[in-house]
Amino acid sequence: MPSEKIREGTYILLYLNPRKTFLVKVEKDKEFHTHKGFIKLGELIGKSFGTKVLSSTGVEFTVLKPTIRDYIFKSLRKTQIIYPKDIALIILFSGIGPGSRVVEAGTGTGALTCALAYYVKPRGHVYSYEVRAELIETAQKNIERAGLAKYVTIRNRDVTAGIEEKNVDAVVLDMATPWLVVPHAYEALKPSGSFVSFSPTIEQVIKTVEALKTNGFVGIETFECLLRGMQVEKGRTRPHTLMTGHTGYLTFARKASKNER
Amino acid sequence: MPSEKIREGTYILLYLNPRKTFLVKVEKDKEFHTHKGFIKLGELIGKSFGTKVLSSTGVEFTVLKPTIRDYIFKSLRKTQIIYPKDIALIILFSGIGPGSRVVEAGTGTGALTCALAYYVKPRGHVYSYEVRAELIETAQKNIERAGLAKYVTIRNRDVTAGIEEKNVDAVVLDMATPWLVVPHAYEALKPSGSFVSFSPTIEQVIKTVEALKTNGFVGIETFECLLRGMQVEKGRTRPHTLMTGHTGYLTFARKASKNER
Amino acid sequence: MPSEKIREGTYILLYLNPRKTFLVKVEKDKEFHTHKGFIKLGELIGKSFGTKVLSSTGVEFTVLKPTIRDYIFKSLRKTQIIYPKDIALIILFSGIGPGSRVVEAGTGTGALTCALAYYVKPRGHVYSYEVRAELIETAQKNIERAGLAKYVTIRNRDVTAGIEEKNVDAVVLDMATPWLVVPHAYEALKPSGSFVSFSPTIEQVIKTVEALKTNGFVGIETFECLLRGMQVEKGRTRPHTLMTGHTGYLTFARKASKNER
Amino acid sequence: MPSEKIREGTYILLYLNPRKTFLVKVEKDKEFHTHKGFIKLGELIGKSFGTKVLSSTGVEFTVLKPTIRDYIFKSLRKTQIIYPKDIALIILFSGIGPGSRVVEAGTGTGALTCALAYYVKPRGHVYSYEVRAELIETAQKNIERAGLAKYVTIRNRDVTAGIEEKNVDAVVLDMATPWLVVPHAYEALKPSGSFVSFSPTIEQVIKTVEALKTNGFVGIETFECLLRGMQVEKGRTRPHTLMTGHTGYLTFARKASKNER
Question: Which residues of chain A have a CB within 8 Å of the CB of B224?
């Protein structure tokens, strides 16, 4: 199996160091300018991922194939995006995986949508609700850039008014009032399906957990995830000085049946 | 789409509360005994997931469909297993997803193997190395129980002696001496592919990062993930008193090409 | 200056390892029994602190002079005690020090009281309110054991009904309803004086901060402190597996004058 | 007891909000300029601490009496200073208190020195070693400003060459090579006395702990302290987004006698 070649139109991650990377589309006659000189993108066509290139000022960059984490971090933004660390827990703890049918709200600029789509493919699907029409174009661009458009349906609708899909595997919420969606999530989920909500404030969590308890959910758990980067160098090893102290709380629950005994 | 029925031979998660759950195989004439009475498993056949049952002493359990997280937590164990929080980061941060070809070592009792297999299906594959023959049977059982056997090949071999596969998307290590595998991982990975290592001690991390730096890897990053559970109840909301203070450090890297410019 | 000798009646800390220590009063004819054999306490009389002794089964213990942290950890308990890490922040962040006059509530079993008394001596004083009469005897014992009785006045009174003292340097609360004490604390404090409250739940914090904002306090800050123990051994260095995930939130504020401009 | 008045020469803390405070010396004809207008300091003379003043642009400031924490945070700096959270643990966990005789190294710009002096007064003393002569003037200024000069003796000497004092209660190190001082600390300490070291990197900790184990110390413990600030506002309560992820590790130990049994 030969290694994958870079083509016209391919997205690449230009890597300088862990804190300086650029998600760029390869075009024949384009130069990509950085604070360390420019790179002629056309010259990359036909090379393999992993190759090293020198910028116009002689600085070495590595050409990496973007991963789903890179697409998340490099999303075009109009809103705060959810962090990869939180997305990772949302997906694994809810059991979302290849083949899952997932409802998401709100779409925002599509960072979480991309991750969900990446993990449900090739046979699953993401139905993503977003009431703010002005965000959808950016979301669509981010999803297309990651090559995931065919796994996503965006609905320009207010999810607090109801969810159209039935029998879905998971409902994932990243929105201001998740508690208003809890009854709709119950209707949309298949029995035993997963509810997930991401909320920055503790008051949102308290209201959402109350709603889950009174709407037939079990297995209700709330977590926060602290990710700590380490500087690893012989004789100078230590955690980094700055860290993100808080992004949000993650609440998980499972739908129990109401009628059967 | 009708909701999924419980059959003879199905694995179910009997849920009492977030801290008391049981992974059980449904068999016609079996009773499952808990400290809250027993449950006649045969009576569940034909019911839907999500259903509630009463034990012999009248305590209510919910019958959930096990998620990949449940299979990880409930792995038959002979060794310390890696935690779901760390597995979640391993998978998302390395870009492992549907279709990925992944090398793993060591298999241990197969908890991480299950998660990798779950996310690479239906067209990817996991090649899992384990030098300790006595662990393989347990690992195989855990993988079969989760219905993932066809996505996994276990190799009873010492990964520090070399990796057979070529052009894989990721190499994932959870073993005592990951630094000895770094050159083999480089050979096995496709350019731009992901290396991941999980290690409990900082000395292991220092050695592994040194090896990555001198073997053509870029994008080297080390993290630790602290997961904090919250008690959410109106008027009594607070983080739980006890938490797991440390499981291990996660080191990620990407393969850069050596020869091209 | 000769080193300090152990006498009849002295309290000592028998140290086996960081997790096994015993706070013991030296008495001439007493044996102190542990799971590693017994120690004849009378034989320690006349020796210096720091000395090593063998138990009846030949296990070595070190005889340490108890520090204020040891007195806190070894408090006779009837209630949950506040942790040394939190006490340390309470004292330094509020500026409590030698000479300070401090009001505390509730006394509980006196662990925090001891620490406050230790730091305000020799010329300061702690006025400690406790409405539950049944706790006061234990508190008194803990305070006497630490040799701090003359720096403490315990008041068997409900602090939510008012504070007798005026012009104090700090008011420190570790009780269920700190927000009810905020107006009394304002009256008792000298201008610019420090208010501190320790509360396990976030709802308590929210109510207390609201009360501080509407009662003339400035510099309102809330923190939580996570203390992580490390295992340090060449080749096996790592944070400990278990840690205390939460004790409580600490809220600090300063009294601003209401009338002057 | 009348409340304390502001005089010519007094240091005050001008408080705008928890993140904007200024440590200022009151002088009759001086204006203090901020981004929110200036304040005529002379007009404060004769007023009480806690009073509110308006700047030239009508913005309200509160005049607080600086606490030891304020003096630490506002130290004139030429080097990185140690954080109040770490200082608080150093002091309480080592038992340093009123009357203690303490050796410190290095002095740096005197932030930790001030805190130690504040807590050992009125009868204790701090002997502070600093080999870099160029730092001592700044340290002296910070100590004088906090009114603590008579409790501190600065020694412009290399502490790795030996400690002059004997029978001290504690040795506190914040320097690059604490392991080189361990044997000298043993000689200087009274039996049962406390050793403390603050180090940013894990390699420093490993070397120091090794030295403590082979030099007659017991009760060796290493911690790191994570302090998390909370935003507390009804409906918007959450930890702050940014936090300091690492300052340093704290290692504590107690001197055991070598000769006695």
Answer: 227-228, 230, 239
Mean pLDDT taken over chain B: 95
**Over 70: is that where the pLDDT of D260 sits?**
no
- CA-to-CA distance for B222 and D257, rounded, in angstroms? 42
For the segment B17-36, the average pLDDT, to the nearest whole number, is 94
Per-residue pLDDT at A3: 64
Q: Which helix or strand (DSSP H or E) is residue C32 part of?
A: strand C31-34
Where would I find the beta strands (DSSP E) of chain B?
Answer: 11-17, 20-25, 31-34, 37-40, 52-54, 60-64, 101-105, 125-129, 152-155, 168-173, 189-199, 217-231, 238-239, 242-244, 249-255
Give D95's contacts in chain C (Cβ within 8 Å). 67-70
Residue C46 Cα, gap to closest chain B Cα (Å): 43
In angstroms, rounded to a whole number, what is the distance separating the alpha carbons of residues B142 and B70?
A: 12
The gap from C-alpha B251 to its chain's centroid, in whole angstroms, comes to 17
Q: What is the ipTM, given to two decimal places?
A: 0.95
CATH of domain A70-255: 3.40.50.150
Q: What is the DSSP letter of C150?
A: G
* C47: pLDDT strictly greater than 90: yes
- Subunits with 3+ C-beta pairs closer than 8 A to B: A, C
Average model confidence (pLDDT) across chain D: 95
Q: Which residues of B touch C236 (CB under 8 A)?
A: 201, 203
| Residues A242, D247: C-beta atoms closer than 8 Å | no
How many angstroms separate the CA atoms of D156 and D226, rounded? 33
Provide the 10 A C-beta neighbour count for residue B2. Answer: 7
Dist CA B234 CA C201 (whole Å):
10
The Cβ of residue B201 has, within 10 Å, a number of other Cβ atoms equal to: 19
Q: Check for a shared fold between A11-66 and A70-255.
A: no
Mean pLDDT of C192-216: 97
Residues of B in contact with A148 (CB under 8 A): none
The predicted pLDDT at position D125 comes to 98
Give residue A260's pLDDT.
45
Give the confidence band of A2 by pLDDT, cuts at 50, 70, 90. low
Tell me: domain C11-66, CATH 3.10.330.20, correct? Answer: yes
A216: alpha, beta or left? (left if phi > 0; alpha if psi -120 to 50): left
Q: How confident is the model at residue A166 (pLDDT cuts 50, 70, 90)?
A: very high
d(CA C13, CA C63): 6
Closest Cβ–Cβ partner in B92, B220, B230 for A87: B92
- The confidence band for A238, taking pLDDT boundaries of 50, 70 and 90, is very high
Strands (E) located in chain A: 11-17, 20-25, 31-34, 37-40, 52-54, 60-64, 101-105, 125-129, 152-155, 168-173, 189-199, 217-231, 238-239, 242-244, 249-255
Mean pLDDT, residues D214-243 taken together: 96
CB contact (8 A) between residue C239 and residue B229: no
pTM beyond 0.90, yes or no: yes
Sheet holding C11-17, edge to edge: C20-25, C11-17, C60-64, C52-54
Tokens of D255: 């001197």
Mean pLDDT of D98-104: 98
- Annotated domain spans of chain A: 11-66, 70-255
More confident residue, B78 or A250: A250
Q: Tens digits of per-residue pLDDT, B210-226?
A: 999 999 999 999 999 99
C-alpha B39/C-alpha B36 separation (Å) is 9
User: For D120-141, what is the mean pLDDT?
Assistant: 97
